[in-house]
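User: tokens in, sequence out, please.
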């Protein structure tokens, strides 16, 4: 492995649900990779395959054809918590736990001592100006704040790749803008690659590179388009 090895690589990876007459192709065989420092908006309408591709990249699901690998990280077992963080669209905080307990939980489950996990959680919350929410329950904070807490939870694991699946889909414009600001800042702070799936072009415009997916088919930018996007 080299310092520039891909964080995740899909080699003809696709996903079909069901079999026979009821089979539904969620993602056609897809070849792509995410390198360190990448900032990508994965754009497409609902049901186009965005979530399926992110779930394969995250190791949350298995391809039915092709392969997914993580050359710069190692085995699938090494993905979490830490190297690969996933932020979902809907509420992902556990209602009985406070904000700092929610952020610390993945670290505790991975074997960190409780006091170390709490320290890392509070450092991540402080970085995102969320320390005043530490003792709040999820029901006591707004949707935008909950998504920012989810970003803090991802950041606490010191990720190398952040995958955000429609992170602004249930938020108003102002809250969505704030969450994208936090995602970009978190990726910069962690030195992590960032992939954001969205159907909102105002969100996509915040990232320097755009991939489009329709009916399960991924279309990558041409070399000229890629160079132009990075020069903006």
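Assistant: Sequence out:
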């Amino acid at each position: 492995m080299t310092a520039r090895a891909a964080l995740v690589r899909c080699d003809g990876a696709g996903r079909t649900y069901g079999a026979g007459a009821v089979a539904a192709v969620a993602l056609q065989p897809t070849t792509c990779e995410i390198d360190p420092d990448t900032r990508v908006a994965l754009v497409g309408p609902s049901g186009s395959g965005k979530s399926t591709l992110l779930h394969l990249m995250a190791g949350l699901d298995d391809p039915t054809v092709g392969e997914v690998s993580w050359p710069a990280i190692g085995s699938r077992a090494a993905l979490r918590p830490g190297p690969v963080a996933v932020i979902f669209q809907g509420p992902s905080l556990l209602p009985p736990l406070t904000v700092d307990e929610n952020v610390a939980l993945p670290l505790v489950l991975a074997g960190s001592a409780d006091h170390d996990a709490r320290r890392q959680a509070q450092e991540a919350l402080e970085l995102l100006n969320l320390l005043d929410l530490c003792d709040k329950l999820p029901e006591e904070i707004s949707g935008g704040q909950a998504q920012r807490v989810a970003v803090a939870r991802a950041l606490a694991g010191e990720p190398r790749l952040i995958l955000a699946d429609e992170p602004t889909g249930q938020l108003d414009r102002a809250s969505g803008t704030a969450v994208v600001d936090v995602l970009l800042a978190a990726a910069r702070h962690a030195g992590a690659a960032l992939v954001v799936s969205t159907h909102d072009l105002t969100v996509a415009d915040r990232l320097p590179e755009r991939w489009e997916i329709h009916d399960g088919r991924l279309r990558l930018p041409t070399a000229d388009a890629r160079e132009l996007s990075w020069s903006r």
